[in-house]
Amino acid sequence: MVSEKQPRVLVISVGSWSSKVGSTWPSLLKCYDSENVANICIRDEYPDSDVASRYFSISENRVLKSIFNRNIKTGREIELQECPEKNQDLAAHNERYSKMRKNRRYSLLLARELAWKLGKWKSAELDSFIDSFNPDVILYSMTVYIHHTRLVEYAIKRTGAKAVAYIWDDTFTYKQSNKIGYKIYRFFQRKSLKRVAKLTNKFFAISDLTKKEADEFFGIDSIILTKPLYRVPEVDYSNFEMPIKAVYAGNLFIGRDKSLARIIKAAERINNDGIKIKFDIYTSTELSDTIKEQLTCDCCEIHAAVPQEEVFEIQRHSDLMLFVEDIDGPDARIARLSFSTKITDYLSSGKCIFAVGYKETAPMQYFINNDVAVIATDDKEIEEKLSMLVNNPDLLVKYAENARDVGIRNHNEEKIISTFDNCIKSVI
In percent, how much of the chain has pLDDT > 70? Predict the structure, then answer.
């Protein structure tokens, strides 16, 4: 696994390392001594992962306020046990993001980037945290957020540390959308990524397709790396009985809510003479009234988000894992190069996967090429495939076994962490 001598690793992420989100970085670094791992995030959130020993948070709400009040403190080190019940900055952050996700206007994204440019995110507290930890290596993902990239660039230059980037989404092409606002925003974002790429020593790519396009754009030779399985999967349907219990846990942004509604609509028709399949949905996403109405039925129950370990336990007692992306809406191409952390979590579950989304994305192509999921890419297929599972529940076992075998072959934890660790050591 990980060799004895470990470098000091600073990870700069967008969100905090929360047990309610299946973050890739903690899964890759869990074999490191926590004293050698620190994290800086740029959202008003509180971590609860013990993978790192030190955490620093830059409050976006305070960065906005600092435009007019230069004396305000915008960042601070956070203790793991510190999680106040009421936090005004976090409440403002959640409200702002909820509005932006409901109305994703690129003018608002550009306005936010301008606010970060004018705000005082560089602070004595940030410098003290970076200097005192004194990293050997800085890890970061190539995100869509220009202010995140600017922070990474600042930290690399200040510390002189080596840098390793992870490319796990399409954050650098013009292929996701034809909207003018998108292209304007992407123009500036690409420039920021190209700039920080010149300071970066090694690159990971989440999939073959991601590597192909990223290598060509940045002029690099990236290493393919995915999130490892969280356990060796065991297929067990010995206690199975109808109705089929399907589960989804995660956010429902970028068209996922609409795809889920289409699944439930099909299920209602299948269940017209009795419940044959039912759905439990765990999410923190604030759903619109329209979507809530479409999901309100006897076969679907919406729950609040729960910690990741609880999600894994729920999955073990379910029959079918839902993977949903936008099928044919404006966000259908958003996941074209991504490889969701859900994929390896689902492959770890030992259960059948039902995947709904736009066919030409990397996740859907992975499912298709490896025959590890029941696939649906339109309304007709959704109903046909759900009916197929209801009428032939033995297929649950068949696809679960396929997923188990591919998971063990492609996402072996020891092999992935060894590849990750060797890369980190090689840059020092």
Answer: 93
Kindly give, in sequence order, each residue whose CB lies less than 8 Å from that of residue 178, ignoring residues fewer than 6 positions away: none
Computed over every residue of the chain, the mean pLDDT equals 92
CA distance 135 to 367: 38
Q: What is the pLDDT of residues 310-356, one digit of tens each?
A: 999 999 999 999 999 999 998 999 989 988 888 999 999 999 999 99
Dihedrals φ, ψ of 201, to 5°?
-90, -35
Distance CA 355, CA 357 (A): 7
Residue 102's pLDDT band (boundaries 50, 70, 90)?
Answer: low
Which amino acid, 101? Answer: R
- Using alpha carbons, select from 89, 39, 38 the residue that is nearest to residue 60: 89
| Residue 344, phi then psi, degrees to nearest 5 | -70, -30
Query: Is 22 strand, coil or helix?
Result: coil
Task: Mark 256-276 as b/e (b = at least 16 C-beta within 10 Å).
Answer: bbbbbbbbbebbeebbeeeeb
The model's pTM is 0.86
> Among positive and negative, which fits the CA dihedral 390, 395, 400, 406?
negative
